[in-house]
Amino acid sequence: MTKLSFGAHPFLLGFDQLERLVERTAKTGNEGYPPYNIEQIGETAYRITLAVAGFSEDELSITEEDRQLVIRGRQVDDSARRVFLHRGIAARQFQRSFVLADGVEVAGAVLQNGLLHIALQRSLPDSVVRKIEISVPKSDAGRVKNGQ
Fold first, then answer.
1. Residues 6+ apart with CB under 8 A from 21
2. Which of 42, 93, 45, 41 is nearest to 70 (CA)?
3. Nearest 5°: phi and psi at 25?
4. Can you tell me the distance from the alpha carbon of 134 to that of 148, in angstroms, rounded to the nearest whole number?
5. All domains in the chain, ordered by first residue
6. What is the pLDDT of residues 11-64, one digit of tens each?
7. Pairing of strands 68-73, 94-99
8. Phi, psi (5° rounding) for residue 17?
9. Global pTM?
10. Do residues 59 and 75 touch, judged by C-beta distance below 8 A?
11. How far apart are CA 145 and CA 59, in angstroms?
């Protein structure tokens, strides 16, 4: 049995890139760390909040790579200088990725109380109606005039 892919549906022309984005997102290896929330805070505004307790501003990076928002955290492991009786807070790195739709832009980021807030803004596309003219090739013009 042949699997009909989303991008191959006859009514969805040009959406094959969307299917590739979904596949790429599934392969990013996003684990459960760090935990995050995604909120809609307005009609066209969103906020992603990641729990990054223990990370400083210098240990975090936010980039946009080919319509993909990538948040990375890398802490310096200074455990060689310290003696732990119990270690329940690991100094580990992470990478968390989110695919951004066309028209969604990163508006800014704030680190506050161990939470990294990333503001996103979606611009609404203008509704455009355009009339498409129908032309007749010159070789067919004679047949059309004669009623053929």
1. 67, 68, 99
2. 93
3. -65, -40
4. 18
5. 1-30 (no CATH), 32-123 (2.60.40.790)
6. 777 777 767 766 766 665 556 889 999 999 999 999 999 999 989 999 999 999
7. antiparallel
8. -65, -35
9. 0.70
10. yes
11. 74
3-class secondary structure for the chain?
Answer: CCCCCHHHCCCCCCCHHHHHHHHHHHCCCCCCCCCEEEEECCCCEEEEEEECCCCCHHHEEEEEECCEEEEEECCCCCHHHCCCCCCCCCCCCEEEEEECCCCEEEEEEEEECCEEEEEEEECCCCCCCCCCCCCCCHHHHHHHHCCC
**Rounded to whole angstroms, how far apart are CA atoms 11 and 63?**
34
